[in-house]
């Protein structure tokens, strides 16, 4: 006998017959014909290899084999009902987990605000968050360790567009020490910063992205100071050691009296901020709901 032969439909009919003592009553309760109930019980008896009911003029009653099966059948049906309820909880977002990833500056405002909206609507869902570069987040997403990642196409321009959900285009501002000769300008020409040292993360993709932007403006940037953390970058800018690019998403968190943030001219550079959804999570109710919150917050910030 194989476990899959214990069809829940047959077990449910078996329990109904045992409880009601009649094929006719069980048929009426389940919306079947009496012959359909008889066929179901016969199929279960064939699967078990024993008679489960003793038929008589006054109805039916379980045989010893039927009595032995009855508590197991009830337990299986209860467990199945619990399983259905648990999955319904996930579908209704009463419970579950949402595994998120985001690059650092997305965690300054975009992700926290979206998480706050999500928590207010679905307090039973537990979010987890991992921070990293776009490359690292996409690898985690592909490996099934994340359900959704907020990524930037600034450093990975070859991301397939079909795998991404647009959120916003984030402007890149230049951070200058408050005493910089160009600090009073409303917009700072990029080529006017050719003589400044640039502070950039010590990562090949970050240096390459900065170099590409500066070379398009006619100069090659000097990058003697390589640091990754924003608090370190801004401390060096405040001390007059150079300038750096700051995403608008991080502008509020980067505000300090000894540093000014200015748009660049003649064209304002931007980076595309997108949400990438794991293949395994495309039908996840939690992911779908959180994407709505991300879009709403992105529209506010944009």
UniProtKB/TrEMBL annotation:
Keywords annotated in UniProt: DNA-binding, Transcription, Transcription regulation
GO molecular function: DNA binding; DNA-binding transcription factor activity
A Pfam family reported for this protein in Swiss-Prot or TrEMBL: LysR_substrate
Residue ranges that the Swiss-Prot or TrEMBL entry lists as coiled coil: none
Keyword Cell wall biogenesis/degradation: no
Residue ranges of domain HTH lysR-type in the record: 6-63
Domain of life of the organism encoding this protein: Bacteria
InterPro entries: LysR_HTH_N (IPR000847), LysR_subst-bd (IPR005119), WH-like_DNA-bd_sf (IPR036388), WH_DNA-bd_sf (IPR036390)
One Gene Ontology cellular component annotation held by this UniProt entry: protein-DNA complex
The family this protein is said to belong to: Belongs to the LysR transcriptional regulatory family.
Protein name from the UniProt record: LysR family transcriptional regulator
Protein species of origin: Actinomadura montaniterrae
């Amino acid at each position: 006998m194989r476990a899959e032969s214990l069809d829940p439909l047959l077990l449910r009919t078996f329990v109904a017959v045992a409880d009601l003592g009649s094929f006719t009553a069980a048929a009426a309760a389940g919306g079947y014909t009496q012959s359909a109930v008889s066929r179901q019980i016969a199929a279960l008896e064939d699967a078990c290899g024993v008679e489960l009911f003793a038929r008589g003029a006054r109805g039916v009653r379980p045989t010893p084999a039927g009595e032995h099966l009855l508590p197991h059948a009830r337990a299986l049906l209860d467990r199945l009902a619990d399983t259905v309820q648990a999955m319904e909880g996930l579908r209704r977002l009463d419970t579950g987990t949402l595994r998120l990833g985001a690059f650092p500056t997305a965690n300054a405002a975009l992700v926290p605000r979206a998480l706050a909206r999500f928590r207010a609507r679905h307090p039973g869902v537990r979010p987890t968050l991992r921070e990293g570069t776009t490359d690292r987040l996409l690898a985690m997403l592909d490996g099934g360790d994340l359900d959704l990642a907020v990524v930037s196409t600034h450093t990975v321009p070859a991301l397939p567009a079909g795998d991404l959900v647009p959120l916003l285009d984030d402007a890149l501002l230049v951070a200058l020490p408050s005493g910089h000769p160009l600090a009073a300008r409303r917009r700072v020409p990029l080529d006017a910063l050719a003589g400044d040292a640039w502070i950039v993360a010590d990562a090949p993709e970050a240096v390459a992205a900065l170099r590409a932007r500066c070379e398009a403006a006619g100069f090659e940037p000097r990058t003697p100071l390589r640091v990754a953390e924003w608090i370190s970058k801004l401390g060096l800018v405040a001390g007059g050691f150079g300038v750096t690019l700051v995403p608008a998403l991080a502008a509020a968190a980067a505000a300090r009296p000894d540093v000014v943030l200015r748009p660049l001219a003649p064209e304002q550079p931007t980076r595309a901020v997108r949400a990438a959804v794991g293949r395994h999570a495309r039908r996840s109710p939690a992911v779908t709901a959180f994407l709505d919150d991300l879009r709403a917050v992105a529209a506010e910030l944009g």
